[in-house]
Each structure stands twice: as structure tokens, then as C-alpha cells.
Amino acid sequence: IDGLLEHTNNQTQVELLSEKVAMDFGDLFRHPLQLDLIEGELMVARENNDWLISSDNLYIFNSDLELNTRLIFSVVEQGAIFSDIQSDFRNVIAASLYKYYPVSIMSNELVDWLEMAITDGFVASGSFIMHGDLSRFPYPDNDGVMQVVFDTDYLTLKFLDDWPVLRDLSSNVRFHNSSMLISDASGKTYRGKMTGANVLIP
To answer: Which of its termini does the chain have fewer beta carbons within 10 Å around, N or C?
Structure first.
């Protein structure tokens, strides 16, 4: 990683401008994320034995997507990680989405369904929010929020193994904690057309 590092009074500021970066998040994703470009400022501060990592705007680009994100991570001495992330993404290649599923905090059933269901298409833009203690996800007591919202264009989708494939699907997709809602879905099958359909995975 290329950048400029400045350290003063228990606070470190990192100015990033790096190309061809691999970021390893442990078991959060299946593989390290491969980035063509990462740019922005990152602040790392320590107070007593707790850490605060933040950025007002990180820009990330590769052949799969573009992302602008604001983030705050609070890491306390006992090991809990509190996150506050707001991201806007665009120009997403649907066939590559599987690389970015945070599999260690998602149910196996949801990951399996997503990998079976979405195989092609394009997401022009969308947003992502994560707010809460990461160890508490998917927040059954509503003490945190994970939400992804986006519209699809020309998506190829298969709801169930024995269902026909839907092509050229346009829809609104909303993930909220462990649930998923696809609304106002319209597309084509080899037998005809589907319009105005809704699908909910609670």
C-alpha cells in the first residue's frame, strides 16, 4: 500500500493512494478483496486500550464495482467491534457479487441462495449501512442495523432450483439484517413475462 503516514498524540493519519491492493479481512469474505485503486484518508486513534478507526471518505475501484464509504470502527479492549458504515456503490457486475458477501456473518442458507440465484446482470447504484456491534449481527433484538438497497437492471435470477430462470429482471432489492425483499420485479422467462412480483425471505 502506498500513502503518507503522520503520527501525533496517539493519533495516526494515513493518506492512501494505492493501486493493485489485496485486502484480507480474515474469514469475513471467502477470499482477499482485489482492488485496482483505493484512495482517501484513514484516521487511527488510541485512547487507553481502545482503538478508533475512521474515514470521512474512502474511494475504492475495481473491475467489479465503485465504492465511496464513510466508516467508523470502535475496537474496545475486550475485543468487541462497533461499526458505523455508510457506503454508496455503483457500476456493480452482478456475476461478481459472490466475492463481496460477508459470509462469516450471513446465514449459510442466505449465502447459498444468493450464489444459486444471481448469476448475471448489472446494478447501477445502491447503498449500504452497517451500524452496531458486529458480533451481534443479524441483530435479533433490533440493537443494530445492516441494510443494503439497490435497483437491478438486466439481472439473471433463479428463485428456486427447479424454477425457470428469469432474465432481464428489473427490481428493487432490500436486505435488512437477516431478511431480504425483492419488490416490483419484472422479467422474462422462456414461457412468458413476469411483472410486479414480490419475494420475501424473512
So the answer is: C
